[in-house]
Specification:
By secondary structure, the chain is of the alpha/beta class. The protein is built from 10 helices and 13 strands. Strands 1, 4, 5, 6, 7 and 13 form a 6-stranded mixed beta sheet that branches. Strand 9, helix 5 and strand 10 form a beta-alpha-beta unit.
Length: about 240
């Protein structure tokens, strides 16, 4: 049994190593789960973020690596049970010169420029906080956004707090700033996504995820990529 899965370059979740290997926390999770349900061959497809939904919907591959679950996206694909819960944050220059600690802080500074990946959920979060269109600079992927931040084209790059920690650790002149998350809003969850006409694969993956998420092996594997107890506990309890 062969399964094809699409991914983008966004450490620590998924990326292509210098040696040409596809790796990352979500890649490893997919490998463990798919092998457990009898998949003997896993094919990885490097793509762009905006190709995820149409690609799996049109059958170019069988599933996507985890992304944030939204009602709009659920109109096009079928999501698995959640596999992580991640808050947002910024990557900024060391010392955070403009004190950008939240989307609201960006909205209050007309001279602040915020980098975002086209199609990701952070855009709506920023707009809801009052960030103006003139403050956004859009990029096709994380490497382009990080390069722009290092060059001073933008003042902050918005992403997940976990992903931002990985970016900052690889760039000494940058640092990660996590946003505070209110209890009322909760923390957004992410999940694998599938073609709606492939319920058998979705059901098999969900059954294995419910068994595996929160296990000692799962926690140990995710810890190697920087995912903490906080990012696993809520989804592990929900998946039971």
């Amino acid at each position: 049994m062969k399964v094809s899965i699409a991914y983008i370059d966004e450490p620590p979740f998924y990326w292509t190593s210098r040696e040409g290997f596809v790796t990352g926390s979500d890649i490893e999770l997919a490998d463990v789960v798919l092998r457990a349900i009898g998949v003997t061959s896993i094919e990885h497809h490097l793509t762009s973020f905006d190709a995820f939904l149409p690609g799996v919907r049109d059958g170019r591959w069988d599933m996507n690596v985890p992304m944030f679950v939204t009602a709009e996206r659920a109109q096009h694909v079928a999501f698995s049970v959640p596999v992580w819960a991640l808050g947002d944050g910024f990557v900024v220059h060391h010392g955070n010169p403009k004190t950008l600690t939240s989307y609201n802080a960006v909205a209050q500074r007309s001279d602040a420029r915020l980098g975002l990946i086209t199609g990701q959920v952070q855009l709506n979060s920023a707009k809801s906080a009052g960030v103006r269109d003139s403050q956004f600079v859009m990029f096709k992927d994380q490497p382009d956004a990080v390069a722009a931040l290092r060059a001073g084209t933008i003042d902050a790059f918005a992403g997940t707090a976990v992903g931002n920690r990985a970016v900052a650790s690889a760039n000494r002149e940058l640092e990660a700033v996590a946003h505070e998350t209110s209890r009322e809003k909760g923390v957004p969850v992410g999940a694998f996504s599938f073609n709606k006409n492939n319920p058998a694969l979705l059901q098999a993956v969900n059954q294995q995820l419910r068994t595996y998420l929160g296990s000692a092996d799962h926690r140990a594997r995710m810890a190697r990529y920087g995912l903490t107890k906080a990012e696993i506990d809520s989804i592990a309890a929900a998946s039971v």
